[in-house]
Amino acid sequence: MGQDRCGVVSRQIEHTESVHQTVLRAVSAATEQPVAELTPLQTAIDVDAMDTLLSSSKNLRSLQFQYMGFEITVRPEYVCIQEPHESAIES
Whole-angstrom Cα distance, residue 35 to residue 84? Predict the structure, then answer.
């Protein structure tokens, strides 16, 4: 886990878990809530499509969405969790 590139939390995507599992672990760390208590990720994004896109596409550089008040950026090698930018909140 780290905070250097992402602001709140970043997690490397391990080859032993799916992308959505990494997203959930990162949000769990950022919120200090157990994964089981998080809002289902499916409410924010189609997790099967995200897993498929990121595991099979060599041209996809990143995928961004909002979940539980955070901006989530998923890249092929890591997940980045950031607080929303103030300008995005005001619009």
Answer: 21
pLDDT at 65: 96
Give CA–CA dist 3/47, Å, rounded.
24
Look at the pTM and tell me if it is higher than 0.90: no
Instruction: Give the separation between CA 81 and CA 74, rounded to whole angstroms.
Output: 9
Amino acid at 81: I
